[in-house]
Amino acid sequence: MKHSPTHNGCQVFHFAAWRWCIKRAHELLEVHESVATFHEHVLITGMEQFLPLKPAPEGRLKLIEVRVDIEYAMTKTDLSKPIILAPLSSPSGEDFGWMVIDGWHRIYRALSEGRETLPAYLLNPAAEEAIRIPL
């Protein structure tokens, strides 16, 4: 099932050639447990390179930085709420790994507080396709 062009109220996460409807991801997770695998402790160390936690090393440039509202991240996020990861693949099926599509504010807070893991849902490929918004 593809993302409906008439779906209202999408919260969109956009990375490179992909866009996902986070609202639809949450709707699927509420109705069908089989759309994802739950992991209580997913390692988040190393993700600080994508966040405004520290500047790029001198003479270097950050090519990717996820924008976060720091005040919101530090005061209004619930670290018990699982982040959501989507599998990435090329049109030919080449596996590119996983992308966090929901939870960057929680990751920012967790890393700021010295945590190394967060709970997470890893979507299956069919669910990822169902929430992907065509460019």
TrEMBL record:
This is ParB/Sulfiredoxin domain-containing protein. It comes from Amycolatopsis albispora.
